[in-house]
Amino acid sequence: MAMTPKQYELVEMIFAEACELPSARRGALLDERCGADPIVRREVEVMLAADDAGDDGFTNPEWSCGVTQADDEDPALRARAIPERIGAYRVIRECGHGGMGVVYEAEQDSPRRRVALKVIKLGMDTKRVIARFEAERQALAMMDHPHIAKVFDAGSTDTGRPYFVMEYIKAVPIVEYCDTEKLDTRARLALFTEVCNAIQHAHQKGIIHRDIKPSNVLVTMH
Question: C-alpha distances in angstroms, 174 versus 114, 130, 149, 177?
Fold first, then answer.
């Protein structure tokens, strides 16, 4: 059953509150705030599980690899697990992963360009996860702002796992950039204003990013 706008708003509010609490105290919060609405509670629990798994939906290729210890211990196994191609894209390397998806740096055949390709993890392709993955893709596709990464394409692998293709951004987190470039207060505020403009654009499209933090805001030079 689809949620109503009021339920969506409630889910976002409860999720934001729950993220500030240790895991042991979240159950009591959900009991109190969700009341007798199992749909809201289930959606909040799914979002919390994805958040705990580290899937923010915007893993950056250059500074957050997200590899597991097992991957590091067996490079050969890790290399075999990376596909050579996904659709019209030649996979170059895995550059990040979260709770639901894996992000690859890839090269598009035509037009020839580097892209970031996100695909649902093997074994995670349940109806609920696919629906959330598609919602993320649709939300990004609605954006048309120079400071929000663009969606170029979408499709499914040979095994039916959905993927979408985004602008590849070689960048660093905003705090690291400010410190490296030794920006003064005025320059930092000017940069922050650009971030706010991008977030306002998303809000005007009816999209709320639930994980805005410095590590998810990237700066690159053109």
Answer: 22, 31, 15, 5
Q: Is 190 exposed, middle or buried (0-12, 13-18, 19+ CB in 10 A)?
A: exposed
Q: Rounded distance, CA 162 to CA 121, Å? A: 9
Whole-number Å distance between alpha carbons of 165 and 42: 29
Residue 173: which of 222, 116, 220, 217 has the closest Cα? 217
Closest alpha carbon to 60 in 25, 97, 33: 97
DSSP class per residue in 9-38: HHHHHHHHHHHTS-HHHHHHHHHHHHTT-H
- 102 and 94 in contact (C-beta within 8 Å)? yes
CA atoms within 13 A on the CB side of 172: 8
Residues with catalytic function = 211
Rounded Cα gap, residues 123 and 46, in angstroms: 16
Read off the pLDDT of residues 112-130 as tens digits, 9 standing for 90 and up.
Answer: 899 999 888 766 666 666 7
Q: What is the pTM of this model?
A: 0.57
